[in-house]
Amino acid sequence: MATSGCTSSAQNKNASAPAPVVLVTEVSASDVPIFSEYPAQTYARNSVEVRGRVDGYIDKWMFRPGQQVNAGDILYVLDQRPYQAAVEQARGNLNQSEADLEFARKQVALLQAEANLAASQANQLKAQQDYDRLAPLVKEEAAAKQELDAAVAALHAGEANVRASQANVDQTRLSTQTQISSTQGKVEAQSAALRTATLNLDYATIRAPISGLIGDTLVPVGGLVTANAQQPLTTIVPLDPIWVRFKVTEAHYLAFKKRGTLFESPLTLVLADNSEFPQQGHIQNTLNQVDPKTGTLEMQASFSNPQHTLLPGQFGKIRVQTDLLKNVVLVPQRAVQQLQNMQNVFTVGRDNTVELRVITIANRVGENSVVTQGLKPGDRVIVEGQLKVRPGATVQPQPYRGAGGATPPTGN
To answer: Considering the entire predicted model, what is its pTM?
Structure first.
């Protein structure tokens, strides 16, 4: 009698126990992007080594290591005195040659020779006139023969003087032309020497060839700079844009190519502290062959970096969409249970009865699983409270809101 009473009491207690409360989510079908992550490292593509073009000792150092410099900014000033002296000497030589050229072009010697020729021609003409006047008079014995002989001698001398003066004019003209050509060549050479000296003086002020972040100086004030030194003075790395290299598998590369999105897909850079860099990037180019040892292909992407947040050499991860699953069902991973090498979930029917479903998972997206078999849109899946239920039991379903009371994202 006592045993029968206890059994009846337990049955009444079980019959009056309320159904357990569980948290459920109603699944739906949607297109889910699949993202992949790859180890990555930043680098500066167009870094420049700053070197001297002329020899000299550093007088001034005009920058602070690590600061932003712009193309054309003065970085170093060498001792300019020897180069300034070379400019002044070259300018003086050029001025002298230009004066010589101007004098040669005036042809003073040629003008003098031509004047002498004109005088000789005038003397010859007078001698000819004297001869022409005396010759008839001598025939008529109206003048002495000695006067005619003197006139003939004067005429011959005048002719000789004319020939000599003409030869002198020709020689002077040739010499003048040669002098002009030679002096012109000297002027051109000394103009080039002045340009070279001026250029060397300009090179004594070393400027930034590009804009970017400058490194530490490797030669102090007073140190010697040589044009053929193996060690650079410093380096400049451009930071905007910043470049990132990473390697993708051959399969993912082929998927990019098939979709035609290799250079269009936006990239997200995840930094070492797991924060996301605010600017999106894009692949700019790839290497020309797959690494046969790893089966990967290097990609090179650029990111806008206006605040210079990123520096060359930083490590991170590149996140990029590699697939798009069409019309698939997502469930939170915490709803999935493993039983005898099978994955299953508890579902709640319209009558709030629990059913165990075997499912097939194709992928994971964030905190959710992509289910390809076993569930359909509209099914209610238990996310919390699985330990309180069994197949066929009745439950009190409540909506699952995720961590912090928010509905979990459908994909990442």
So the answer is: 0.61
